[in-house]
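Re: weekly structure request thread

Next one in the queue (234 aa):
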Amino acid sequence: MEKIKILGIGIDNVTLEEAVEYSRKRISSGWITKVYTPNSEMLVETVRDRSFEELLMAGDLLLPDGVGLLKGARFYKKRFKEKVAGVDYAYALLKMAKEEGLKVFLLGGKEEVVELAAERVERDHPGVLAGFHDGYFGPEGEDLVIRKIKASGADILLVALGMKKQERFIGDHLERCGVKLGVGVGGTVDILAGTVMRAPEFFIRNGLEWLYRLMKQPGRFIRMLDLPRFIFLC
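Done, posted below.
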């Protein structure tokens, strides 16, 4: 697949449909696949933290998650086919898992939130859920979580532990988890649970999802400063 390099990181130029089909083929072929969903904030972090840069570059599929990447590509005289948001990819994977008879494990979020997300997944996609676990565990709890995931027989692992922690968990432990596909999905568990609402269609369509999140969570302002930093670095 074509990659567009932004700040030295090769992002796959794919549509959502192409990303799901690639994932389907990788799972059916038995390949272990690491999928990351970098946005502009994550790419700025790779400049600060070179170990994080190496981690992302070791991913098998990097999706352009965020309008910032679409705008940043233009500085390199490139154009992405479309934005592939992690949450959209996660929903598409759940649908694909139902069609293919695959199992999904949810990892991350508060205990009560991931429980609610699991209930909704089971309601909307009966038979797909292999298991779930909250994201509040330290290094000493990793082995227990890994054993739980492996025992579940899951094919797909959706990891929502937040930037860097989720990518490191996938990079370090995916093979031990016994799954074929591991995906860093950020706040997707909260959206699956319904505790956080996705931005209205107007904001998504006009590339203003970041503004909606800032309106709902003003505390994100400091993090949002990485958006102009990203454009400057491009």
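The radius of gyration is 17 Å. The longest helix spans residues 86-100.
Next request, please.
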